[in-house]
Amino acid sequence: MSLELGAAFSFFKMRPQRSPLLFRLASVLLGLAASGAHAAPEPIKLALIEGLSGSFGNAGEAVHRNLVWAVERVNARGGVKLPGGARPLQLLRFDSKGTTEEALSMFRAAVDQGVGFVLQGNSSATAAALIDGLNKHNQREPQRRALFLNYSAVDPVLTNEKCSFWHFRFDAHADMRLAALMDVLAADNSVKKVYLIGQDYSFGQHVVRKSRELLAQRRPDIEVVGEELHAMGRVKDFLPYAAKMKAAGTQAVITGNWGNDLTLLIRAAREAGLEAKFYTFYGNALGAPAAIGEAGVGKVLAVAEWHPNVGTAASDAFYAAFRQRFPQPADDYLHARMQALVEVLAQSIEKAGSTEATQVARAMEGLRYDGRHLGGFHGGQVRAEDHQFIQPLYVSQMQRAGGGGVRFDNEGSGYGFKTVRYLPAEATALPSSCKMARP
């Protein structure tokens, strides 16, 4: 209660007969002040801007579950510690309906609601537009600056040519993932013929182009026997592609395909009798193992920062806790990087002693996260020069669940992944061309 209000109440308490109305008013004000003293602390707002409906709504909802769990874990230990007292995190949902235009509209709605931290990742094109929008907003309205935390938009340009002080990426970008896959492929001396195939848009084109470049550097003896770009989401029968791969003597396929374009391709390869391994970015992603089925056993490889069969006690406990929170098999989609994102944000706010975007960004630059709230099994560092989170990567191979090294399956499919190569964080880092302008 303020000194002024206390004095007024004391005055009217001693002289209620002089002004019963004012006495009652002072009593009401005192009650309001007392209740305000015990009000819940204001939450720190995080905005998830993602396609939560439409064709890719399931992917957006899967991300939402990851972030909900991460926020719950921070709040369960008391929230984010600040000089004025601990404050909880609050995750707000903004449905972009899978379009960049709507995502920008949702961004404006979020900052109008006082959101200081925007989370997105299921489209690199949308991420690029958000970076541009955020740069302009933060310059125009410095009193309402915000940060963009990206959990899966992997176009390398986002932390290179388009790098921004206001953007931080918590997924390994496409070249980092591809380099990890190439480590495994390059070590397989039996492979002499490789086929490159991708979806005909910026990401797919980049993976095909970069794969050819890395093969020339790492394994110049390998022959690229085919190179294809196909319309995204429009090919219903990949058998003609699989037939060409088989006719060319393909022993390995490198692809950035995802969704149906990946599952249909691998099924067609099995139907055509193609005995080749598939080096993929997303073979272990949402719905893919169940859709691929037996055709992927021993043939599909994927790359990620973590997978459920890492095999340590801390990893097993982490995964078991998530499955307890979301027990339905269809909800089984967990990524350590999304947990790390929220933990790094909380740690940066505490380090800054503030939720102001500029101060939090400066605190996040160079921050080292030791994985303490993930059981210590997954950590990393935010590289100051480009705001890329440097973390370990695993290349894993699809197997039937229950076999050696495959204790857990994916989404109740009966198929899981087994580690074939682990790369520590320092081995995944690549040079950056970022020339960042700082406020």
UniProtKB/TrEMBL annotation:
Keywords from the named record: Signal
Family: Belongs to the leucine-binding protein family.
Sequence ranges assigned to domain Leucine-binding protein in this UniProt record: 43-402
Signal peptide feature range: 1-39
Alphabetical list of SUPFAM superfamilies matching this protein: Periplasmic binding protein-like I
InterPro entries in alphabetical order: BCAA_transport (IPR051010), Leu-bd (IPR028081), Peripla_BP_I (IPR028082)
Highest taxon of the lineage: Bacteria
Coiled coil ranges: none
Name of this protein: ABC transporter permease
Origin species: Caldimonas brevitalea
